[in-house]
């Protein structure tokens, strides 16, 4: 059969399909923008092939026979439908149950997670490096954030802000977690309102990363930033002075192994936190994001334990002082 005859036969078939579509609506149509024709038993490949044969055939044989407009709509619709089905079926989470987000909602787009851990022994005073004034451990406020990117800058925001503090004989953790980007202002306000003049901030690389990032977000939203007025000890600087050259690195997990006898199992690396948050926003699946919350909580616990531990390492540099009074203020 010649190319001309094949193309002519294909056109007849397309016209028949169009007539059939006009007579019988297709109950299988499932895409809202599908054109007004019925279910065609012509695959995308066959349609594209027929279209190419029509275009490549001699023009004089088709001067009076134009390709129906619905033919092009059919090809476009089938292509989109096929792509949608492929994306749905290829997704490993298409039928997987969604995991709920940890914590309780306290504002639009914001969750709060709270935990408490008992402490066997709490020193009365700490002195970090050469500070003349000793620090009451109950005034320490450890802070750690998880962010949407690792480079910082105005385009990066914290989606999780965690703090740890000592209350009576317990280590208390409080984490503010964004469940939506609209909750950022509420998160910054909640964190800022918790800070008070007696707090002494504690972090690990917080002077270079966490606090500057939060201050940028406070500034962008035109909110007051109480952290600017508070004293701040970055334990990374102390650890580097003491152990640089002795350990392979001074990452927090290295410090945990060397000083605190902590080895994390199945811990989600902090570098994967941005992807976990994007996954939550796109799929409403908190499987990985909840692991980020656990990672952040472990960082906070380790920060406080490290601060309490440093008093016993080098008495000449990190001195632990006797109590000055019978009563010590307790953070509320």
UniProtKB/TrEMBL annotation:
Q: Which residues form the YprB ribonuclease H-like domain?
A: 143-307
Q: Which InterPro entries match?
A: RNaseH-like_sf (IPR012337), RNaseH_sf (IPR036397), YprB_RNase_H-like_dom (IPR038720)
GO-annotated molecular function:
nucleic acid binding
Q: By its UniProt entry, which SUPFAM superfamilies does this protein fall under? A: Ribonuclease H-like
One Pfam entry name: RNase_H_2
PANTHER family in the record, alphabetically? EXONUCLEASE-LIKE PROTEIN (PTHR38462), YPRB RIBONUCLEASE H-LIKE DOMAIN-CONTAINING PROTEIN (PTHR38462:SF1)
Please give the name of this protein. Answer: Ribonuclease H-like domain-containing protein
């Amino acid at each position: 059969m010649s190319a001309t005859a094949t193309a002519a036969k294909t056109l007849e078939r397309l016209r028949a399909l169009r007539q059939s579509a006009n007579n019988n609506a297709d109950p299988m149509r499932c895409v809202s923008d599908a054109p007004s024709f019925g279910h065609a038993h012509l695959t995308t490949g066959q349609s594209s092939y027929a279209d190419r044969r029509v275009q490549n055939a001699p023009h004089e044989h088709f001067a009076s026979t134009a390709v129906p407009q619905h033919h092009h709509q059919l090809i476009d619709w089938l292509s989109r439908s096929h792509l949608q089905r492929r994306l749905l079926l290829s997704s490993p989470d298409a039928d997987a149950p969604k995991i709920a987000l940890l914590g309780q909602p306290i504002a639009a787009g914001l969750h709060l997670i709270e935990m408490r851990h008992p402490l066997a022994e709490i020193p009365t005073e700490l002195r970090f490096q050469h500070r003349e004034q000793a620090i009451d451990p109950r005034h320490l406020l450890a802070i750690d954030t998880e962010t949407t990117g690792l480079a910082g800058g105005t385009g990066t925001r914290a989606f999780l802000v965690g703090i740890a503090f000592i209350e009576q004989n317990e280590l208390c953790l409080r984490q503010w977690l964004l469940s939506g980007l609209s909750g950022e202002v509420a998160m910054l306000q909640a964190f800022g309102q918790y800070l008070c003049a007696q707090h002494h901030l504690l972090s690990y690389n917080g002077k270079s990363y966490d606090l500057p990032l939060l201050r940028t977000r406070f500034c962008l939203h035109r909110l007051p930033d109480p952290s600017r007025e508070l004293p701040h000890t970055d334990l990374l600087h102390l650890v580097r002075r003491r152990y640089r050259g002795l350990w392979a690195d001074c990452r927090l997990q290295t410090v945990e192994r060397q000083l605190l006898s902590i080895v994390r199992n199945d811990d989600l690396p902090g570098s994967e936190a941005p992807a976990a948050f994007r996954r939550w926003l796109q799929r409403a699946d908190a499987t990985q994001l909840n692991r980020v919350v656990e990672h952040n909580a472990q960082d906070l616990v380790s920060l406080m334990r490290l601060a309490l531990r440093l008093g016993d390492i080098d008495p000449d540099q990190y001195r632990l002082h006797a109590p000055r009074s019978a009563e010590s203020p307790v953070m509320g």
